[in-house]
Amino acid sequence: MNVQQLDQLEYGVIKEELARYVVSYEGRRQVDELVPMIYPPAIQRALEETEEARELLDRGASVPIPSLEGMDVLMSLLGSGYLFSEQELTALTVFLGSCAQLRKYMSTKEQSSPRVASYAVSLQELKPLKEEIERCIRFGVIETHASKGLERARKKLAVAKERLQRKLDGLMARHRSILQENLVSMRGGRYVLPVKKEYYKLIKGAVLDQSTSGQTVYVEPDEIAALQGELELLAADEAREEHIILGMLSGLVEREQAALAGNIEVTGVYDFIFAKAKYARTLGARKAVLNDRGVLRMNGGRHPLLAGMIPVSLEFGRGYRSLIITGPNTGGKTVVLKTVGLLAAMHQSGMLIPAEEGSQFPVFTGIFSVIGDGQSLTQSLSTFSAQMRSIEGMLRQASPGVLLLIDELAAGTDPGEGFALSIAILEELNRRGANIIVTTHFNELKAFAAATAGFENARMEFDKNSLQPLYKLTIGEAGESYALQIAGRLGIPEAVIKRSGELIAGQRVDGGAGGAWQGTAQAPARYLDDRKEPGVNLPDNSQADKADVKDTTGSGSAAAKAAAPAFEIGDAVYVTSLGKSGIVYAKRDSMGMVGVMVQKHKLRINHKRLKPYLSKDELYPDDYDFDIIFESKENRKKRKLMSKRHVEGLTIIKDEDDN
Q1: For residue 190, what are the β-bridge partners?
Q2: Residue ranges of the alpha helices (H) in 256-332?
Q3: What distance, in Å, lies between the first and last C-alpha atoms of the chain?
């Protein structure tokens, strides 16, 4: 999986947060190497381990994980012939003691936490090595009884020191009157007497040093020079014997290199697992279900780096595998993309995620995102160019099981070309079988989602009264941008807002800057009514629209002007008196009235007030069931039941057309 792509989702930040909970260098290494897995059994195992570890912590367990202090240096020197010091060998015994403690602790958890406990079986206590080091070294010092040779050397050294000390005591007493102080000093590792400058010639011996002021001369009397030479030889014998012991112990350590490496690895695994568990407790996270059906259901998911985020729910994989999310700026669309992508990556990394019970994720073989403008001054890339460069990579990587996250597809270019390019890109990505979540402001993409198999609309909810985002995602409905309302609330003059509305209305009459999207439709009635803000009262249709249907032939002949289009059931039309689009549900009658459904209202409208928008042949397959659009869900169920058998008392009531 492409780790650089994951960094755009702040996966690297999550790893840094996780690293705060490890206590060893090996645990840190495993965090550094963490990437989402794509092998389901490995993911499942990691998730169960993390959950077991969290349950242990929730029960108040204190897991004795070794810190591995000093073990990195020791392991790096094995095989080099290095002679380990007393301190390094002492650190090793501490580590081996911790391994024994951890193994014993985990043996008591085999029933409650079998997966986590299973690793401890691999820990080797290496008792002979530990006991031999502890026999030879105590409190960082080699014991005298570590070897016979060391014992003999230290006995001789002790006798020589005692003789020297008696000699020094005699000299101090004899020359007390000419000494600067009644203390024996050392210079260059040899004992000396601190003699007053004017008297130093009275003592037969060698001058080894003098004080900074020059008032004290440090003299080594000839009487102790020979004894000091003997002492140095005996000290060398002691050091040689100590080196022999350290060499012997180092050899024992060398023979256990593989076992020590295994213990360190197991320690790192435990450190890593419990770090994930500790981080999960901090996030209030839980284990999501892993499924192999391509279904993603995120119940109340929260971005782990956004404190106080309102949970978001999202689903795909049943009936559709891709979402097109619309809604106002600052409504949380980008956060939804990052949350889904990041939680999916965390889940496949064996981490518990901040989401509610019932959440489930499939295994994505790749997670790719284009989030942010990606501008680069050094590469002279615009927002659009940078995004297209990333999209090109997505087109190469797209395949079943790949998750693609695209923020504001084809933004930063001509809207007419932008929406067309967006649809072409989405069609190709869809053809390759990828899961896609896209945010957009293009109305045409709402229509595309409503009309294309595998896609579904979703919108970020917005409070129209307060003009504040609700950060709630609703699937199955397209959203509005509320750009004019927000601009007005932020102080844009009313005249500017009004003129903007006029331009938008004119654009809709003319078919929009880019025209209406045309393609193979499945159920486009949902999006045709979304082209104007929902909730607007329908005006009375008693006043005739004086504008006739435009002459589309360009000939200007009387016969062309007189010809009225024959509207068919299922045609999309533009109602000029309402400024809205609708679907024809009843053909023109003898009075010239056509049945049109506008925003779920069935209206009878004079054919002169209608303009062709999209024909039914462009919108629907030949065998499309128009009851899906014109009848209620309850009536459709009843009709299906009636087609199978007679049901006593079951009736379908057909309402009159709405006024």
Answers
A1: 187
A2: 257-283
A3: 58
pLDDT band at 452 (very low <50, low <70, confident <90, very high): confident
CATH architecture under which domain 289-481 falls: 3-Layer(aba) Sandwich (3.40)
Q: In the numeric block, which tokens belong to residue 425?
A: 């890109």
375-389 burial code (b ≥16 CB/10 A, e <16): eeeeeebeebebbbe
pTM of the full structure: 0.70
Task: Enumerate residues 6+ apart whose C-beta is below 8 A from 590.
Answer: none
- Is the CB of residue 245 less than 8 Å from the CB of residue 138? no
CA distance 361 to 227: 82
Cα separation, 63 vs 74, in Å, equals 25
Q: How far is CA 452 from CA 181, 287, 418, 427, 521, in A?
A: 102, 34, 18, 9, 6
**Domain ranges within the chain, ordered by starting residue:** 3-126+256-282, 149-230, 289-481, 526-550+559-644
Q: Examine the pLDDT at 654 and tell me if it is beyond 60.
A: no
Cα 594 to chain centroid distance, Å, stands at: 55
**Residue 143 to residue 148: CA distance in whole angstroms:** 11
Q: Do domains 3-126+256-282 and 289-481 have the same CATH topology?
A: no
353, 359 contact by CB (below 8 A):
yes
Higher pLDDT, 576 or 1: 576
pLDDT > 80? residue 525: no
Q: 390 — alpha (psi -120 to 50), left (phi > 0) or beta? A: alpha
Instruction: Kindly report the length of the chain.
Output: 659
Half-sphere exposure of 197 (CA within 13 A, CB side): 7
Strands annotated E in 54-100: none
Other residues' Cβ atoms within 10 Å of the Cβ of residue 175: 16
CA distance 57 to 331: 37
Which has more pLDDT, 491 or 243? 243
Calpha distance 287→14 (Å, rounded): 17
Neighbour tally for 398: CB within 10 Å:
22
CA distance 20 to 275: 8
* CATH architecture of the domain with range 3-126+256-282: Orthogonal Bundle (1.10)
Interstrand relation of 593-598 and 601-606 (parallel, antiparallel or unpaired): antiparallel
- What whole-number distance in Å separates Cα of residue 199 and Cα of residue 219? 11
For position 504, what pLDDT does the model report?
65
User: How far apart (Å, rounded) are the C-alpha atoms in residues 120 and 116?
Assistant: 8
Token code pair at residue 640: 């299906």
How confident is the model over 427-454, as a mean pLDDT? 88
